[in-house]
Amino acid sequence: MHLNVILGVTGTLLMLFSLTLLMPILVAVIYAENTVPTFSMAFAITLGVGFVLWWLKRDGVELRSREGFLVTVLAYLGLGLFGALPLAPLLGSSITENFTDAAFESFSGITTTGATVLTGLDALPRSILFYRAQLQWLGGMGIIVLAVAILPMLGIGGMQLYRAETPGPVKDTKLKPRITETAKSLWYIYLGITVACATSYCVAGMDVFDAICHAFSTVAIGGFSTHDASLGFFDNAAIEGVAIFFMVLAGINFSLHFGVFQQRRLTPYFRDIEVRLYLVILVVVALGAAWILSAYPEASTRPIRDALFQAVSIATTTGFTTANFSTWPSVIPFLLLFAAFAGGCAGSTAGGIKIYRVLLIFRQGLREMRRLVHPNGIFHIKMGHQLVSDRVVDAVWGFFAVYLMFFVGLLCALLAISDLDFVSAFSAIGACLNNLGPGLGDVALSYQALSASSKWLLVIAMLLGRLEIFTLLVLLTPDYWRS
Questions:
Q1: What totals of helices (H) and strands (E) does the chain contain, helices first?
Q2: Mutual orientation of helices 126-141 and 3-20 as an angle, nearest 10°?
Q3: pLDDT tens digit string along 141-169?
Q4: Which helix (H) or strand (E) holds 430?
């Protein structure tokens, strides 16, 4: 284990991250806000620590695949902790009351969870609001993928990092032969969709600042807003329509976006069985919520519009709101929350288990039933026209089993250390583990009232969800640390 190389790569990522702190400084200067010293000190500290770690790197030593897991975890831990500096009181910020709240907000942003401890967003400095949205945008595709496109130019290989961080069950698929070209392609597509989203928001009625911030959160499927009422602040059907379109788009595998861009046609979307199931789930959840909501006119005067928006927002794990869906009648809140457990497609910025895994688990269940009827039969699982190996099926079942164990364990721990009721605790763990954000009950609007220990527990859930459990779990095995 080459720890000096690992620390060096982590330091490089911190230095790159420090450069992003210059953007909030620019916003603070434009709007004449007093947050410039806070962001400047955070920039200096992050850059300095990153430089020291980078200096420790030993030339000529390759980063091995197994070390990519540790770099990925350290990167998210480092970005989350150093990302909390501009929000923490220790640098003079009055945004949060303590470092725990600042760290919670930072980790929520970098993991694209969207859970918040802040209130009074409408009165916060614009530089802070921009910074929160920027954190989500950077975390959306993964700061590691961005680094993969840059680190090779600094003499550091990137394939190991790409395999460890890229979301979804299939991590070895390359869009182009060179990993740097792959990472660049993904980021060009990501940037292009973000620009298109921001432009569409402007056309729909947002000002430029709100459009940029909400585009960052929408494409990253994060959910941070510049207003306490989220997108409900605008009460604009066109804005909600733009949000729905780009939330759906961001929940699709970015490899498919690349294919569509190359072929200049939409065929790859329609041929992909995961995308088809993803869209079907969104439609079914939206129709079900609208049907139930229409029976309770006192709950909403526009059931179809509200149900459609919230179904897409929650099912894709974005977390934008136009209404407090946690107070909606009947089973709607739980219907939306359970839809978030499935999440979006593999290779997207969405959280959750991923549609690919859900489909494989379902088909494996069907295969087992057929085996009961025909014990000597040989049955294969296909995704489209492609056979799925038993190794992949076993991996999916393994992930699902570990996911359930961690969910139950975290839920029991939260109930033990907090005074939350079961519904609030269940939704809090589900929202953080699936990188959703808003929950039900006491955590429907904010997580501010939770104890410090509860917040750190939820931070762990956010990291587990973002890193899809195994990336973090592998570090706890003795075999990993053996040379």
A1: 22, 2
A2: 140
A3: 775 465 444 444 434 444 445 445 545 45
A4: helix 422-433
Find out whether 208 and 214 touch, Cβ atoms under 8 Å.
no
- Distance (Å, whole) CA 430 – CA 340: 8
The string of pLDDT tens digits covering residues 240-264 is: 999 999 999 999 988 888 889 888 8
| Nearest C-alpha neighbor of 344 from the set 195, 176, 220 | 220
Kind of pairing, strands 381-383 and 386-388? antiparallel
- Structural tokens at position 474: 């592998």
Rounded to whole angstroms, how far apart are CA atoms 418 and 293?
A: 32
Separation between Cα atoms, residue 350 and residue 278, nearest integer Å? 12
What token pair was written down for 248?
A: 């759906």
Structural contact between residues 130 and 33, judged by C-beta atoms closer than 8 angstroms:
no
- State in Å, rounded, how far the first CA of the chain is from the last one: 6
Nearest alpha-carbon partner for 135 in 154, 117, 111 = 111
CA-nearest of 463, 466, 460, 450 to 101 is 450
CA 462 to centroid of chain Cα atoms: 9
Tokens 């950077």 -> residue:
138
Q: Which residues contact 55 (CB under 8 A, 6 or more apart)?
A: 8, 11
Q: Both tokens of residue 421? A: 């009721």
Classify each residue of 353-387 as buried b or exposed e, where b means 16 or more C-beta atoms within 10 Å of its C-beta.
Answer: bbbbbbbbeebbeeeeeeeeeeeeeeeebebeeee
> In this structure, how many other beta carbons lie within 10 angstroms of the beta carbon of residue 257?
22
**How many Å apart are CA 339 and CA 33, to the nearest integer?**
41
| CA–CA gap between residue 217 and residue 436 (Å, rounded) | 12
Q: What mean pLDDT is predicted for residues 303-332? A: 94
As a whole number of Å, the CA-based R_g of the chain is: 22
Task: Tell me the three state secondary structure of residue 381.
Answer: strand
The tokens describing 477, both together, are: 């095995």
- The average pLDDT across 354-364 equals 91
pLDDT band at 86; cut points 50, 70, 90: very high
In the block, residue with structure tokens 């329509």: 241
Mean residue pLDDT across the chain? 88
Query: Closest by alpha carbon to 74, among 402, 478, 471?
Result: 471
What sign for the dihedral angle of Cα 79, 81, 87, 91? negative
Q: Are 317 and 350 in contact (CB under 8 A)?
A: yes
Which residue, chain included where needed, has tokens 């089993």?
A: 401
pLDDT reported for residue 174: 52
- Contact, 223 vs 310, CB < 8 A? no
Would you say 227 and 219 are in contact if contact means Cβ atoms under 8 Å apart? Answer: no
